[in-house]
Write a structure and sequence with these properties.
Distance between the termini: 58 Å
Radius of gyration: 19 Å
Shape: globular
Number of domains: 1
Length: 214
């Protein structure tokens, strides 16, 4: 049974990789949003499928928010955040299972100990870094799954809102690409928020450090 399961997983991975090779750009999906959004059931199924296959295609998580914004606008924000959290879980679990206690994992675990599980995930999501890179880093740091999911939903909020707003003018996204979704001022504001969230734990860490040394 285990051999059959592994074979089935292998076939699924090969099919997903083949699909990723055929669909090398999100433009393929974005150009078909009219057809997808014409049927609510079809649109919902497409969103779930996108969340499931996105890690294999290495597409940015903001794409999910763009698609949600096209079909549902800001009222779809909770759905976008839930799907972004869902699509971030596979790389997180893969990294957590493969963590070997190396230098990077130890450094990440120390940072999490200083800032807290939930806060560390929120801060990492506020930074303008590739989502899957963040998921892998958090997974190596030993953060629990629940804190990862909740922290991802909270920290991705500004990026999800930006994606939804961009999805309501999909022509611009098709013309300029997904990179045009994120405004530089939003990046600055999110960075400031991340610094503020880190300020308290950083102060306590350096305040208590002399006591630890003594």
């Amino acid at each position: 049974m285990q051999r059959r399961t592994r074979a089935a997983i292998g076939v699924a991975v090969l099919l997903a990789v083949g699909l990723g090779a055929a669909l090398t750009s999100p433009r393929w999906l974005l150009s078909r949003l009219d057809w997808l959004a014409a049927d609510p059931l079809r649109f919902g199924a497409a969103l779930v499928a996108l969340a499931l296959i996105r890690p294999l295609l290495a597409w940015p998580t903001t794409l999910i928010a763009v698609v949600v914004g096209y079909g549902w606008g800001l009222r779809g924000l909770p759905v976008a955040l839930a799907l972004i959290a869902l699509t971030s879980v596979p790389p997180f679990l893969l990294a957590r299972r493969s963590a070997d206690g190396g230098r990077f994992a130890i450094a990440g675990a120390r940072a999490v100990d200083a800032t807290g599980d939930l806060r560390s995930v929120i801060v990492s999501r506020l930074l303008p870094a590739p989502s899957d890179v963040v998921s892998v880093g958090v997974g190596l740091s030993g953060v629990p799954l629940r804190a990862f999911v909740v922290g991802t939903a909270i920290g991705e909020l500004p990026w999800a809102v930006a994606g939804i707003v961009a999805g309501q003018s999909i022509e611009r996204v098709l013309r300029e690409g997904l990179g045009a979704v994120i405004d530089p001022q939003l990046i600055l504001a999110a960075g400031v928020a991340a610094v503020l969230l880190l300020a308290g734990p950083a102060y306590r860490h350096f305040r208590d450090r002399p006591n630890e040394l003594g």
